[in-house]
């Protein structure tokens, strides 16, 4: 599955947010094993209002959302890249993730100690991002060294050419890191990207900042100067910001629907920010959703941008990909407007797509395959 690591300084609200994500998932999905699978790993449903509508049209017995996995990575502190704290272990955990949510403390609370003694999200981000960058620099130096050695060993031909391209890309990334920019800010072509991928650079991963605000700030977060400073910083480096209140989310999980609505109403908001956090993580990862729907179940599936129909089928089962014949496909809006498969077919909106078809966001698909 796709993993998102939750990082941030100690005491910014990571665990509170992680627990809220998991509790919320448990409460929502009685017929699906969304839960904490390890103390610090949880599977969370991606909220999607289209699912209920599809399920209704098809009269499905079951509705299954798609999911992302969250990992609470505690303990990233100043000096982590030098092995301080349990530094290296934490960095290794982040390396395995596909994207990063960095929780940033934007709430003031005298009872909750801040490791640096004051609330300053831009400073906090710099500390974390510096550690991630140092880890990448170490990684790149090692790799460049090795590439240099193979070069002086007199390698020629295709491999030498590839090494040349890789070294060039790594030098550009190095220059970015040294001027305080993440690896993801460096434009790479397809070949370079593929050559560099094996290093699993931490600052190349998509990142979303989660501004953890006090409940009173949820309705008008930009009245909080910390949020404003964070937004500006994020914009400079091309990352997203989501405003969330971990504490509000934690409290919501103990309430029934009516109480929750009342509480949110009193705060002047419709939700505590968890849903937009999940959705925005999904988008930052370049993920798309397609649907399968029928009497048995309606289900959302996650694919990457650019997946062909057989690759998309392979997400359901590898046999679907191997034996792929064609996909009967209709866009979500057409499916809903027509009121189902057969109606869409009568209107000539059901397309027979073959092996080359690139799946689009919201496609409703029925796969035909050989077993
Ligand atoms: P972590 O070290 O980043 O995982 O932080 P925790 O989730 O353990 O939170 C540290 C402390 O901050 C706990 O006492 C939380 O109850 C508190 N906390 C977390 N989020 C908020 C918030 O939005 N507002 C306030 N006032 N306290 C919070």
UniProtKB/TrEMBL annotation:
UniProt keyword DNA-binding, yes or no: no
Alphabetically ordered keywords of this record: ATP-binding, Cytoplasm, Hydrolase, Metal-binding, Nucleotide-binding
Annotated signal sequence range: none
Pfam families in the record: MMR_HSR1 (PF01926), YchF-GTPase_C (PF06071)
InterPro entries linked to this entry: ATPase_YchF/OLA1, Beta-grasp_dom_sf, G_OBG, GTP-bd, P-loop_NTPase, TGS, TGS-like, TGS-like_dom_sf
GO cellular component: cytoplasm
Chain positions recorded as ATP binding sites: 11-16, 213
Entry cofactors: Mg(2+)
Limits of the TGS domain: 286-369
Similarity remark: Belongs to the TRAFAC class OBG-HflX-like GTPase superfamily. OBG GTPase family. YchF/OLA1 subfamily.
Biological role stated in the UniProt entry: Hydrolyzes ATP, and can also hydrolyze GTP with lower efficiency. Has lower affinity for GTP.
Protein's name in the database: Obg-like ATPase 1
